[in-house]
Amino acid sequence: MASDKQTLLIVDDSPENLLLLSGLLDGQYKVLAANSGEKALRIATQTQPRPDLILLDVMMPGMDGYQVFSQLRANPNTRDIPVIFVTAMDSADAELRGLELGAVDYITKPIVPPVLMARIHTQLELKQARDRLAGQNLWLETEVAKRMAENDLIQEVSIRALAHLAEIRDPETGHHILRTQNYVQLLALLLKTHQRYTGVLTDAYVRLLVRSAPLHDIGKVGIPDAILQKTGPLTDEEWEIMKTHARLGSEAIEMAERDTAIPVEFLSLAKEVAHWHHEKWDGSGYPDGLKGDAIPVSARIMALADVFDALISRRVYKEPMPPEEIQNILSLEKGRHFDPDMAAVFIAHFDAFCDIAKRLPN
Fold first, then answer.
1. Which of 137-141, 151-155, 212-216, 282-286 has the weakest average pLDDT?
2. Is 102 left (phi over 0), alpha (psi -120 to 50) or beta?
3. Distance CA 309, CA 295 (A)
4. Are 32 and 7 in contact (CB under 8 A)?
5. Annotation: CATH topology of 7-140
6. Sequential DSSP letters for 197-225
7. CATH topology for 170-359?
8. Is the predicted pLDDT of residue 170 greater than 80, yes or no?
C-alpha cells in the first residue's frame, strides 16, 4: 500500500547531521538523504513523486547549497519545490542572501528540534495550499478554454447558418461562401507583410475578417425572389433594388450589434464587408461611392474575392471565364475597381486562388 506521508529530501555532507535529521523526521515523513549537491539534484529530478520539501545545507564541498538551489530553480520539474536552508552560517547577511535567492526559510545550526518541526510543518501546509490553488487554477483555465471553444463553434455555426439563408435564396452560388472565405483568408495573409497593410492586418484582424466574410451578402435575404432569381438581365429599376442588399446587410448586422450586451468584435468587420464590398477604388461603386483608402481594408479584400469568384464560377447565364481572361480583367481593373496593391498581390498568386476554386466547385 502506497504511503501517504509527505517526502522530505535532506542534503548535508555530514553523516552526523543526516543521521540527526533523519531520526527527527523519519516517523512523521518519508525521508530521502543526499550527502552531496550532485546526488541531491539526481534524487530531486529522478524521484517520483518529487520531494515535497528540501532541507539544504549551504556549506558543502564541491557544489555548495547555493549552486544546488540555483539548478533546482532552473529546472521546470523542480523549481516549485520549497527549499529551507539549514546551515551553520548564522550571519544576517547569509540569511538575507538565502531568502533573496528564493528559499522559503533559513534555519541555523545547532538545530532546535521543535522549531525545525514547526517550520517544516508550516512550509508543507503552505505547499499543499499552493498545490490546491494551482490545481483549481488549472481546472478553471481548462473550463474557460472549453467554454471559449464552445462559444467559438456556436458563433461559427450561427454565421454559417445566417450566410446560408442568403445562399438558399440565390441557389446558383453553390460553394460561393466557402470559396470567398478561403480567398479572403489567403489574400489577407499574403498582404500581411505589405508595408501598406502591416498596421491593419494583424493576426487578430485576419481571424475576425475570415470569420465575418460569409456575411458579405446577408442583405440578399431582403431582395425579392423575382429579382434575385431572375435568369435574364435586370432592368435599371431591378438593378437599383438589387444594389440595396449592401445597405440591408449592414443594417441587419448593426441591429444585431445593438442587441448585444457587450461588443462583438467580428460584427464591426462583418458590417464593413457587407456594406462596402461593392465600392470601387475609383469611387464609381455603390452604395456610398467611397474612393481609394476611404474604403475599409476589409471591404477592399472582399471585393476582389467576390468578383474573382463571380468570374471563375458557372452561372445559368454564363460559363466559367478562362483564367487568362480573368487575369486580364483584374489587371485592367487595378486602380479602377480594385486597390492596385491588393490586385497586384492577387495576380502574383493567381494560381493559388484558382486552386481554391477547383477544390470547391459549384
1. 151-155
2. left
3. 20
4. yes
5. Rossmann fold (3.40.50)
6. TTTT--HHHHHHHHHHGGGTTGGGGGS-H
7. Hypothetical protein af1432 (1.10.3210)
8. no
- For the chain, what's the residue count? 362
Distance between CA 266 and CA 271 in Å, rounded?
9
The model's pLDDT over 48-64, given as tens digits with 9 standing for 90+, comes to: 889 999 999 998 998 99
Helical residues (DSSP H) of the chain, grouped into ranges? 15-25, 37-46, 65-74, 92-101, 113-169, 176-191, 203-212, 225-228, 236-243, 245-259, 265-276, 297-312, 323-332, 340-348, 350-359
Cα(29)–Cα(7) distance, rounded to whole angstroms? 6
Residue 72: which residues within 8 A CB-CB, separation 6 or more?
Answer: 41, 44, 54, 78, 79, 81, 83
8 A C-beta contact, residue 216 and residue 164: no
pTM: 0.60
What residue spans define the domains of the chain?
A: 7-140, 170-359
pLDDT at residue 171 above 50? yes
For residue 343, pLDDT beyond 50: yes
How would you label 4-24 residue by residue, b for 16+ Cβ within 10 Å and e otherwise? eebbbbbbbbeeebbebbeeb
Reply yes or no on whether the pLDDT at 149 is more than 50: yes
Q: Return the bridge partners of 83, or none.
A: 54
115: amino acid identity, one letter: V
Specify the pLDDT at position 74. Answer: 93
pLDDT at 344: 97
Q: Is the pLDDT of residue 199 over 60?
A: yes
